[in-house]
Amino acid sequence: MNDEKMNSHNIEAEYMDIANRNAWPIIYQKIGRECQSYPYTCLEAKKPQNKPLNRYRDVNPYDHSRVVLTRSERDYINANLVKMERANRKYILTQGPLAFTVGHFWLMVWEQNSRAILMLNKIIEKNEIKCHWYWPHGVGEDEKFVLSDVKLTVEQISEEDCNYYTTRVFRIFDMESSESREVIQFHYTTWPDFGVPSSPVAFLEFLKKVRSSGALDPEVGPPVVHCSAGIGRSGTFCLVDSCLVIIEKEGMESVNIQQILLEMRKDRMGLIQTPDQLRFSYQAIIEGFKRFNPNFKEDPKMEESIYSTVAEENEEEAPPPPPPRAESLTRAPARPLPAIPTSASLGNLNYTRSPEGSSSDDEPPTPPARECSSPASSADDEDDEPISVTESGENGETLRRRRTRELAERVSVMKKRARDAERWHALKRSLYKPLTITFGFILAGIVIYTYVKH
């Protein structure tokens, strides 16, 4: 046990040093600067025919690691194969599908022999559509998707609610070969955009469940991991999982979290989007080492850790206002990051934050909205997307009424803008003809006068 504690000392000491110096933004910026020297290109993503297929203009797949579709009119999809050889892990990181890329998404799952989809976002977050609803709305043959463009059908065969995440099993049928395959979706429903789960405990239980399914094993195709852009929450999941595997194989002292993140960023840009996500990764790796290591004797009080699954219910209140995605790769927050709550196994990692420290709800004023980073595509403007999860403190009926009211207000505003625009265009049209005629008479008069005069 003493050896195990000594092995964990390096990362814990590094964690404490960064925390005591309040240096998470500095470390995060340093990682961003190192990535700016990478020579990788995104030429395919920037081709005119492929630009509409990107959810965000500044989140593009590198050419050397992008996933190539083989049975499609276009071989492009915004996805990268991220490899971590030391952990014997491969992941496909991708954006949340757009309305017109759902077929591409499922074709990628089929062609890459993926056995799991890890969805780390909700369909709608903070009244913004983050991902198109890409799976059947119900169980059974009657609800299945028929994707004629890629010659696949997708049928949902089961669904299980596990409190803060949901699992669904799908059967994909290939209409060309008449083969079928089952794929499981792990849908983490309480991880806020640009934020972190309220504790690593529930996240580690989710990771344990994914691992036990065999979806991460090297014998099957790489899991498809996505959030909205496929870099923030997705990158956090993959970094924590890979580091814990390396710790299991090589020991805690062999892991350099920042170097592993830099290595993973060579396959997909911008993995981990905020200093807070980087800090949470350290925290989850330290806690995961103690929970997953069979030789580590756990404190009996661990079960009473304040990191409980109950806390996950209120995560929606915690996320900071989202920065623009491009700036999130390099810019540090204007304020220090908040302290991390105490855990039975992480109690010794607490530090005294400076008086000006703030909670994750108390961030700098909201910067420009992130819509500026998204393409002008109808998929991000849809108002008829289904709502996937009820929020804490509200029953289903109340939530539906509130969502309906919000939707009605948005539609009303859009209609008013449309009416105002139509009036303006009508006014321009009504003035155009008289002005044209008048101008024509004046011009004709000038011509006639000039002719008569000469």
Characterise this structure:
This protein has 454 residues and is of the alpha/beta class. The chain folds into two domains: 2-393, Protein tyrosine phosphatase superfamily (Protein-Tyrosine Phosphatase, Chain A), CATH 3.90.190.10; 397-454. 35% of the residues lie in helices and 12% in strands. It has helices at 2-7, 9-20, 24-35, 102-111, 200-212, 233-250, 257-264, 275-292, 325-328, 396-453, and strands at 79-84, 89-94, 116-119, 124-125, 128-129, 145-147, 152-161, 165-174, 180-188, 224-226. It has an eight-stranded mixed sheet, sandwiched between helices. The chain has a two-stranded antiparallel sheet with strand order 4-5. Helix 5 packs across helix 8. The chain starts with a helix and ends with a helix. Residues 1-8, 299-323, 326-335 and 337-394 have low confidence and may be disordered.
Keywords:
protein kinase binding; EC 3.1.3.48; disordered N terminus; 454 residues; Protein-Tyrosine Phosphatase, Chain A; eight-stranded mixed sheet; alpha/beta; two-stranded antiparallel sheet; membrane
What fold name stands as the CATH topology of the largest domain? Answer: Protein-Tyrosine Phosphatase, Chain A
Helix content: 25-40%
- The chain-level structural class is alpha/beta
Strand order of the largest sheet: 1-2-10-3-9-8-7-6
Report how far apart the termini are. Answer: 111 Å
Sheet with the most strands? 8 strands, mixed
Shape: globular
Give the uncertain stretches in residue-range form. Answer: 1-8, 299-323, 326-335, 337-394
Instruction: List the helices and strands in order.
Output: HHHEEHEEEEEEEHEHHHHH
The count of domains is 2
